[in-house]
Amino acid sequence: MPVLSSFGYFTARYYGITNHEFLFDYEKSAKAIVKTSIDYQYDTGAGMSMLGALPLTLAFLNEYDGLAPGWVNGPIHDILGVKYARFPGRELAVDAPFQFIGEEYMKVTEYDDLIADPQRFIAEELLPRSLRNLRNPGSAKGMATLFAWGEEYRRYADREAKLSAELRSYGFPRFTSGISYAPLDFIGDFLRDIKNVLFDCYRVPDKVKQAAEALRDLIVEMVRISVKGKEPGSVQFIPLHLNEYFSPRQYSEFYWPTLKEVVEEMIKLGVTPELFYEGQHEAHLETILELPKGKTISRFEKTDLAKAKEIIGDHSCIIGGPPSSLFLGPVERIDPYVKGLFDNVKYGGGFMLSPAVSVPAAAKPENVKALMDAAIKYGSY
Amino acid sequence: MVKIVFVSSEDNIVDAIVNIDEPTALELADELIRQGVAPIEILERCRKGMNIVGEHFEVGTFFLSEMIMAAEIFNQVMDKIRPELMKTVTESKGKIVIGTVEGDVHDIGKNIVIALLEAEGYTVIDLGVDVPAERFVEAIKEHEPDIVGMSSLLTVALEAKKRTVDAITDAGLRDKVKIIIGGGRIDAHATEYIKPDAATDNAAQGVRLCMKLMGGELT
Fold this sequence. Notes:
The complex is a heterodimer. Chain A is of the alpha/beta class.
């Protein structure tokens, strides 16, 4: 039974650095990640919490040889002046986790502009509105910002390549090698804010659908570029956000069609999509059966894993595990939790254990260790 | 768009709310105001609609999307009748101070709960998001609420909730208020860790738990 690491800010606290250092200091965070990976012996290398910034990737699509990075770390936050995020040691206390601040960056009246040319809208409207230092992209400050961003990206990419190689040398591969997105989540997370996109589904339903379709094509193009030079079957992560908000009727009307098309295209391109069905996904489990069999990974947060196994166990590999709260409580609870879980999901294979979200910073180290011990005890076939 | 149609309650505005039909609900509210129907009666009828919406949410026939839209409709009707309503003295069922705890800025769950509580006749003081423990303590001293509600979505907020409950205890106020916590990551383990008087991951159930904390019976 593979056990995936999802150590989050626990990595920083365990190593004894602040969240600020974890997100801003490449050297220290690399050391923290290596130490945590080695000490706890989960099967994959620990990662680093990273803020998604998909608009940046989509804005430069086909205008840049490769993919512009779709994430923001501490230094890049400083360079770009990301309005939709607050970082520890900047807008927040040094030990706070970064916050994502949803805003209405696109007015409801602008759907037609987005639909007509989504890439232009993202590059010329969304970026200047959501990145303080790109307010005037053609200004000296705007150009210097882009230059500094490119430099920083190179510095971080080099660190990442080195870190991945080091982790691999200790026997910890990284699990994912890219990110993709549900088109409607792009609208909810970056353009309209979650609440507004839900209102839009009632008030301007056709516009919402057309916008999701326009963004679908852009996201598929991103995947197509991202697979160049990657090994076949490499895993791309898709965090889903609006899934649990919708009734099955709205899910299949607004959310699922374009997401499904993105996933199908990913599979055709040789990517293994790992969909993280955040929150409670029980009402929509059957839709996973519409995806090609044996080609996807389904990661769950609050969904009953026994039920998921029953419905999609033959069809998609499942990832799931203990809620954050279990890492905070008595250590004796871990063993029976894992035993009970495996009784329900181990049969037939196709299951990987992972913390449901990530290990909370305040987790007790003995609980983190106990999870791996229990997996070894109950997880062999 | 196909609409879920419910057995008529014989009150159009109730039906419009339960059908999540925003234009009709707002039109009917305007019509009732024009006819001179007392704001308290309009409130009562909207409250009935919100109750049904809450029940549907609790049993799983409605999802967050319906709840959020229903709360938006209710808030818009409230905005129309609030000035007149304020002139009528109505007895509050209780006072609740509510906020999203420090480190978390998610407010969708909190805002649904507020709409449902107001529909039930509670006075709600909304502290907003990312509220430090000390602000909860100050608000308890200032407003003397019956209940303190702490909301959140993020994992980090479990610690913040525990810190806030501890701060209320340290300030000697723990016996003066009931504490309820709510949010997506709340489960039995989290509840045991934070030690509130009530906990839930469901907004509609949260309102019923508030009623119970006020000494009423759980229906």
